[in-house]
Amino acid sequence: MAVRVNPKLITELAKYGADDVQNCYHCGNCSATCPFSKEPFVIPRRSMRYLQMGLEKSLRGDLEPWLCYYCGECSEQCPRGAEPGETMMSLRRWLTSRYDFTGLAGLFYRSTRAEIAALVLVALLTAAGLLAYGYIWGGGDLSAFDGGEGRRPFLPASAIHVFDWALGLGFLAVLLVNVARMWHFTMRSRRSPRVSAAAYLKHAVLLPVHFFSQKRWAECKETTPWKMHLGLMLGYVTMLVLVMFFLEPLQHGPGIRWEVHAFGYLATAGLLAGTIYALRGRLRKSRSSHRHSHGTDWVFLGLLLAVVATGVVLHLTHRLGYGTAANVTYLVHMMAVVPWLARYPFTKWSHLVYRPLAMYFAALQSEALTSRVRGQEQPAALARAA
Amino acid sequence: MRVGVYLGQVRGSSVIDLDAVANYARNLADVELVRVLGLRPKLDPHRIRDEIREARLERLVLAGDSPGYFKPAFTNALAAAHGNPEEVRLASFREHGATDRERLERAKSIVACAVLGVPFPLVAEKEARVVNPATLVIGAGIAGIQTALEIADAGRQVYLVERSPTIGGHMAMFDKTFPTLDCAACILTPKMVAVGDHERIELFTNAEVAEVCGGPGAYTVQIRQRARRVDAEACVSCNVCTDICPISVWSEFDCHLTHRKAIYIPFPQAVPNAYMVDPEACTWVTSGGKKCGACLKKCPKDCIHLEEEDRTVDLDVGSIVLATGYELFDARRVERYGYGRLPNVLTSLEFERMTNASGPTGGRIVLKTKKLDKRSKQEDWVIEPSGPAPQSVAIIHCVGSRDANYNPYCSRVCCMYSLKFAHLVREKLPQAACHEFYIDMRAFGKGYEEFMERIKAEGTRVVRGRTAQVTTENGRMVVKGEDILHDRLVEIPVDMVILAVGVVAASGTQELARQLMVPRDEDGWFSELNYNGDPTLTERGGVYVAGMCQGPKDIPDTVAQASAVAAGVLHGIASGRGSGDLSALSLNEIETRARELRASQLASS
To answer: Which residue of B169, B170, B479, B512 lies most exposed, with the fewest beta carbons within 10 A?
Structure first.
């Protein structure tokens, strides 16, 4: 069967952040030093090779970039400054854009300007929508919270839920299509081994395990990034659950309802710590994983910080009884939250789903390959040839 | 001729002020257009072509640290504009000695020559001058020995200065040479003896250049002669002093694998064949004559003079030959290979001594074993001829070479000596497995490729892939790497690891370069005048380079270059026209000379 080569793949990938792939002379130092490089996955040199050769299809079906947690060992040791770690990062961006059928992910990764424009547009639309809603249906009352006088808020939690669930479900649908594409590319490619339905079921438990623990990251030499990320991610999921399912008690005030707010505070702490750690690292370029920042990284962190910060201010003004300030902050908070949620299937955000899936798929492939060639001499070589 | 000058840099660390050079270039005759491209510009051949057409340019000068980097775009553009693509001239700052901020004038003169179409080194034309027929050779390794012998055999006086106590350099430490597997000593020792006996070679071992005055054709050099404390003429090398000496220190010649005494001879065939005292180790010297002195009493020839002091010698010479050689890259810097931490990780030179029949184990390849040192009551890893032989040996190529984190250049000899090691391991220990981890096998010389095929056929496992680390598992070393050609990861348990460490310029080259006003390249080697045309000259008149100090090279190339240097020196003496002294020329002089050269070129064509 013919192999299609894309000679411009490297130039294309430069827009996703990988500048130095051509420097690689394939000494294999990176794969030998990578803690995740275990047969049948040779990380990251094989992906570097595919890139240099322009094997777009092979790369598209490649799970290896998702198995890398960017500890940076490979980049530090690389004798050619080819930045294999950053290449894997860029490949994750590129893969996200390949999985995304809408093409928006690719657009945003290639042009940070387009991404910011989209964000501003969504933010303005949100503000306009809220204001219009307030003037038309709320009779000019824009207070988001009841004033404590038993007045009905113009946007009760139930009304917000209509909106956020609709938005959530819509994007979930998009994401599911993308996940299906990822599965198709990686598990149904010519090179990938066939996996039985039973195996899929047997290992399904890996999905929640990797989703909640990211435990493989803990195998890296340095564990601080993993801990910070875990805090950020758990905080994030907690907050998402609170907003999606417990908005009413959360918004009720000004008294504090500890049964929900305790979780809220914990989540905020995790979110703030994780965001500030990442921002500080990227500004100082202290770790090799923070040395290169793609435009979308800054947008991601900046927007996340905006969401968290406005949320904190909102909470403070609301609980302290500054009604007007709270209402204005609410509007601003929504202008950050809606664009943030709207990016879900198109950006870095989506690794929340892709990464655990990749771990799951990798385990399936690994098992299928070892069982297929068990007892034969050169498992890896055979596996690749197959 | 209408010329366009483009200035661009490849590396962010470049130091020459491009704008200053650009301003200079604008005022040159013929220059119609000057563009500062800046750091690693994105070049558009169509735009350059339009520029060429618009300014009707006939010649393009690309100036910068490595301007060749930009050349293809400009060649294409000039061809597209129907110009002569041969007229893209490079003005390489780095290659011609404009290596730091202070050398702006040099950068300007390089551009001036390129604009005129005159190769820069040509400006250093041979000058009529009386050349003192005596020659100083600095460094007495195989390069220095070869040059000294050739010049002296032609009947001219040579002063040979060597920093260590004996001549011979690194080659004296080697067991075999590649690819012929000749005995290194059998080639070198006769030459060493010839140097020692030659009536026209005055040898200064244990000596260094302290100061250089004068200029091309008439240098005055001050040599600092460190005290040997043994009369080399009277000493008969009877070994009585060494037997009685109570002080033991690591032997430099045996790469710290064994001990020597404070009064010693580096190796039995040393030239001059006499003992010497290590003033830092000797109790008598360190105590100011109050303690010990055992050797004084025992010496049957009364030739030990522990009170002897350093002295200086002034020499008048016409030519100076740099043959200072190299040092090994410090393998400790690559921590993941465990050198200095794991006892049986050896450098190539250590293995060379071990496998040498005159070395500490008599040529047996053995593992270091733990042994209690009686005096210090500490356990130490020592090497003994009776030690156990390794069952499995790994040889790791490119340690410190071809690595942006250490030395970006290829050390050129490691691939071949590693193959030689593999042969020696397989020959002496046929039952032992031998694994070579390489990136690319550089078998570039006559017979080298065939040598590699031979070694492979002998049963050495050659793995394409750099080793990432040497770890220990259950007390045994494990080499982790990737076998790229078989697309798999490998973990091989081994008993001994030999690191094919790269070479770096010898310590003290910087100081010598300063004294002699000879530029060094960015890797620390002495810069030759012209890489292709004048590989033995430097831009300092009357100063020549031979061997490794100019750049990594193997023994055949070193000897060839050393002989070429001798020819150059003798030519200078015989013709009364010494090599040109570019380093002394001002910008104005260089411009004038370039114009004259250009005129004579035009006249002759």
So the answer is: B170
* Cβ–Cβ pairs < 8 A, chains A and B: 72
| Closest CA–CA distance from residue B49 to any residue of chain A (Å) | 24
The pLDDT of residue A381: 44
ipTM beyond cut 0.85: no
B166-175 pLDDT, tens digit each: 999 999 999 9
B320 close to B543: Cβ distance less than 8 angstroms: yes
Q: What is the CATH number of the domain that holds B533?
A: 3.50.50.60
CA distance A23 to chain B (A): 11
Report the distance separating Cα B260 and Cα B281, nearest Å: 10
Eight-class DSSP state of B508: T
How much is the pTM? 0.88
Beta carbons of A26 and A78 less than 8 angstroms apart: no
Sheet holding B311-317, edge to edge: B207-215, B218-225, B311-317
As a whole number of angstroms, the distance between CA A162 and CA B394 comes to 67
Closest CA to B319 of B150, B180, B557, B173: B150
Other Cβ atoms within 10 Å of B351 Cβ, number: 27
Q: Which of B489, B490, B491, B492 to mutate to test the interface with A (most CBs of A within 10 A)?
A: B489
Q: Are B143 and B323 in contact (CB under 8 A)?
A: yes
The domains found in chain A, sorted by start residue, are 9-99 (1.10.1060.10), 104-359 (no CATH)
Terminal C-alpha separation, chain B = 16
- Nearest residue on chain A to B487, alpha-carbon basis: A381
Rg over CA atoms, chain A: 23
- Determine, for residues B489 and A31 on separate chains, whether the beta-carbon distance falls below 8 Å: yes
Q: Is B488 in Cβ contact with A77 (below 8 Å)?
A: no
Average pLDDT over residues A87-112: 92
What tens digit of pLDDT does each residue of B484-528 get?
A: 998 889 999 999 999 999 999 999 999 999 999 898 888 899 999
Please check whether residue A346 is in contact with residue A178, taking contact to mean a CB–CB distance below 8 angstroms. no
Average pLDDT over chain B, rounded to an integer: 92
Q: How far out from the chain centre does Cα B78 lie?
A: 40
Q: Which domain holds residue B244?
A: 240-298
The residues, ordered by sequence, that sit 6+ positions from A202 with a Cβ below 8 Å of its Cβ are none
For residues B153 and B109, state if they share a domain: no
Q: What share of chain B is helix, strand, coil (3-state, %, to 5)?
A: 30, 25, 40
Evaluate the CA torsion angle B400, B405, B410, B416 in order and state its sign. positive
Longest dimension (CA), chain B: 90
**Does pLDDT of A201 surpass 60?**
yes
Q: Would you list the DSSP string of A83-122?
A: -HHHHHHHHHHHHHHHH-TTSHHHHHHH-HHHHHHHHHHH
Looking at the structure of chain B, the number of domains it has is 4
Which two three-digit tokens encode residue A71? 């500890």
The domain boundary, picked from B484, B504, B524, lies at B504
Quick one: what percent of chain A has pLDDT higher than 90?
Answer: 48
pLDDT digits over A114-169, tens only? 999 999 999 999 989 888 877 777 666 666 665 445 555 666 777 788 888 888 89
Is position B303 within any domain?
no
CB pair distance less than 8 Å for A28 and B404 = no
pLDDT at A382 over 80: no
- B481 and A32 within 8 Å at the Cβ level: the answer is yes
Residues 6+ apart with CB under 8 A from B283: B246, B247, B262, B291, B292
CB A296 within 8 A of CB A108: yes
Distances, alpha carbon A305 to alpha carbons A127, A240, A263, A274, A310, in Å: 19, 15, 19, 10, 8
Cα–Cα distance between B539 and B403 in angstroms, integer? Answer: 29
Residues A199 and A231 sit within 8 Å (Cβ to Cβ): no
Distance in Å, alpha carbon of A384 to nearest chain B alpha carbon: 8
